[in-house]
Give the backbone structure.
Amino acid sequence: MAEQFRRTTGFGGVFFRCKDPKALREWYNQHLGVDTNDFGATFEWGKGSGEMVWGTFKEDSKYFSPSEKQFMFNFRVENLVWLIDQLKSEGIETLGPVAEYEYGKFAHIMDLEGNKIELWEPAEK
């Protein structure tokens, strides 16, 4: 199968559920120097080569649904619409439509063990 685009271009982030996201972010800031905000922290990969997000969610957050796992991975992709079409043709069920924001496009799928995967095509800079 000839691929038109690379499926993933990098790791975009890791998100996890916790009892008190604010307290945990403050702990990481105080003890490890992680520069956090209300969403977590962003780490740069080299000079201008991309970012990775570390994000905390309340333990009862529905954002990870239908997964019951405590974490969710985010992968950067080159062309999200193309990839979603490819995944559908391979029998992978997508969770909702592609969402578009000023910072990029997002879609969600589940892996074979019930982990929710977030796919992210960053917006052009």
